[in-house]
Amino acid sequence: MNYSQQTLTHLTGIYDATNTTRLEALDLQRGFIMILMAFSHCREYTGINNYSNIQSTGSPVWKGQYWLDLWQQMFVSTVAAGGFFMMMGLGVFILFQARLKEGWSSTAIVHYLTLRGILLILLQLTLLHLFEWFAMGEIYFYAGVLLSLGLCMIAAGLCLQWIHRHNQQTWGYFLPLALTFAIPLLLQWWWTQNPTSSSLWRILLITGGASHQPFPMDINFTPIPWFPAVAFGLFLGKLWQASGEKVFKRFGQLALLLFITWFALRTLNLIGWCAFGDYKSPTAGETVHWASYFSMSKFPPSIDYFLWSFAINLIGLCLWQQSLRRWPQLVLYVSPLKTFGQSALFFFILHWFVYYGISLLITTRANTALTMAGFWMLGLAILYPLCKQYRIFKRTKSRHSIWRMF
């Protein structure tokens, strides 16, 4: 595989290099995703109850009355999680190729990614599990996003190893792209064949949800439905490798294609001409309007959900890259986003405690957008110096240190 020196610098710098330039557009988009996610969880802990329409059951008709609910549905709930998984897939691809260039075997890289995946799983099942019990005041099995991310990271490593061993360049495009669309297609077909099934395996592997049998559990993110976002990230990585300096132009073209496909498919869904694309459709007599376009299933994620999420995140990457090219000094003004993006796991773990802590200190929950924004910014102001110090700390560690994985 041939790389320019500039590309190698970017590849090496994504995770491990301390003296090379990181690709700032990726860091900034990752950081932006983190603060969007933080807004959602801040509102959960410090705000009043909000309306959302992200479950696979029910109707796509939007019934919310508050503009902030709709904004969160459009640009947080339907963007952040999909971007989180997509960016991880892209990062895994870049790391895999960089380590191959350094002389690592594909088996050694898979072992490394497996270790990172296990770390994510253990963090979810220990530290974040204990936090969930404490915050909610009850004991139950909780499967959050890190559990699914960890399993998907391991699967992504195995996928890349298979492609590398077969040494077929076209498979680098075809296999990830096939997984991106085949999995949601198969899941939706299975869903239509088993609409009333409530088995434990369905909850654990596909739909998620709450159950009290055989013990209390709450499954938020299931690995199989979310892996397509990681696979799409692997496809983007291959596109990155092949396109060189034109990669962001390709990303922009792809974003436009995804957006057009999303709009066409969503329109067919909502007018009742096609049930394919999402798990829920309007019933007879229901009136849909433009807000219903964003009432897509997130748990589990549908094809419509992925199309919108991928398009918005790709547009974000392109906007950051173009902005930095035109105004290089911009990076100085958005350095907190870059810091959050470079310490994403540390930010993720810490933000739960920060916003829950704020909720314990306030006497009245936020009932206006301005108050909500204040609590959100307060949390970010607390997180920024902590993430900055952690980023400095981990750069003093060897590249094989577990601290470099956060």
UniProtKB/TrEMBL annotation:
Signal peptide: none
Residue ranges of the TM segments: 74-96, 108-127, 139-160, 172-191, 224-242, 254-273, 305-324, 368-387
Domain Heparan-alpha-glucosaminide N-acetyltransferase catalytic stretches: 22-249
Keyword Transmembrane: yes
Transmembrane in keyword set: yes
Superkingdom classification of source: Bacteria
Keyword set, alphabetical order: Membrane, Transmembrane, Transmembrane helix
Name listed for the protein in its UniProt record: Heparan-alpha-glucosaminide N-acetyltransferase catalytic domain-containing protein
Species of origin: Legionella spiritensis
